[in-house]
Design goal:
The chain is α/β, with parallel strands linked by helices. It has one domain (2-327): Aldolase class I (TIM Barrel, Alpha-Beta Barrel), CATH 3.20.20.70. 30% of the residues lie in helices and 17% in strands. It has helices at residues 45-58, 77-85, 102-112, 126-133, 138-150, 171-181, 207-215, 282-287, 292-304, 324-327; strands at 2-3, 9-10, 12-16, 63-67, 92-97, 116-120, 157-160, 184-188, 220-222, 234-238, 244-248, 261-264, 269-271, 280-281. Helix 2 (77-85) runs parallel beside helix 3. It starts with a strand and ends with a helix.
Amino acid sequence: MLADTFGRVATDLRVSLTDRCNLRCAYCMPEEGLQWLAKPDLLTDEEIVRLVSIAVTDLGITEVRFTGGEPLLRPGLVGIVAQCAALKPRPRMSLTTNGIALRRTAAALAEAGLDRVNISLDTLRPDVFRRLTRRDRHHDVMEGLQAARQAGLTPVKVNAVLMRGLNDDEAPELLTWAIQNGFELRFIEQMPLDAQHGWKREGMITAAEILASLQAHFQLTPEGERERGSAPAERWIVDGGPHRVGVIASVTRPFCSACDRTRLTADGQVRTCLFATEETDLRGALRSGASGEEIAALWKRAMWGKKAGAGLDAPDFEQPDRPMSAIGG
C-alpha cells in the first residue's frame, strides 16, 4: 500500500499526460503560454502504462484520473486508456479536460474503457469565456459536454472557478444550467498554483461566498448522510433533490487529513500533494532498468514522507515552482 506516517493510504492516482494546453486561463498561465516540457522528458505511452500497472497491481491503486495540461492533446490517449482498462484488477478511470476536443474523442474514449469525465467550464457567457481563457472556444466546450453525455461518460462533472470581477455573479446561473442538463456542478476555490504567482487570498472567491450566492436562489441541504471521507467536494442537495452541487474548498476548508491521492507528472515525477515542493523521480528509475518491485519501493518511500497538510495557512508557505498545468489537477 501507499501509506504515509499519518495513517492515510493513497488509492487514487492522478496521471498528468502533458503540460501543454490549448487555453490560457487567467488563473493558470500567462497569455503567451509557458515553456513546455521537451518531448524526450515526457513519459512515453508505454512508460505511462507500466507505471499505472505497477500502481494498480502492486500498490493498491483503484482509481486513475488522467489530467494535464489538457490530456486530449496527448496523441496516444485512447490507447493508454484501453491498455489501462485491461489491467487486473481494472481501475476506475476518469479524465479531467477542458472539453474542447471531446466532440471528436468522447465515443472512442468510452469504447476504450474510460468511465467518466470532469469538464472545466467557468462561465456560460462566451464573451466572459474569451476574457478568462484568451481563446474563443466556448462553443467547442459546450459541444464537448453534450458529446460526453451521449457517449455515456457519466456522471459528467463540471468544474467551475469563480474570479472576482469576471464571473463571480454566475454561480446561480451555472447551477440552474447544470440541473437542466443533468450535469453535476462543482465549484472550486482558486488555488495558489498559477504560473504567474499572482494569487492573493483576498482576491479569491471563497466557499462561503459561493454558498451565500447559491442560497439566495436555492434551498441547499448538507448531504449529511454521506460521509465525505477523502472526497474533495462537500456536497449539498438542491431544493430537496435529486440534484446536488459540490464545493471544493481547498484553501478555506482543506481536506488534507483524509487525502487519498498520489500524483504522477508528465515527466515521471511522483508528487505527494498538489502543493509539494519535493518530487521523486520514477522516470529515471524506469529508464535505468529498475524492476517493478524497485519502482514500487521507490513510490512507497515517497508517499511515506507525505506531509500532514498543504500548509496554505502557514506563515512560511511557499507556492510550488510548478504551476497546475505542469502538475496535473
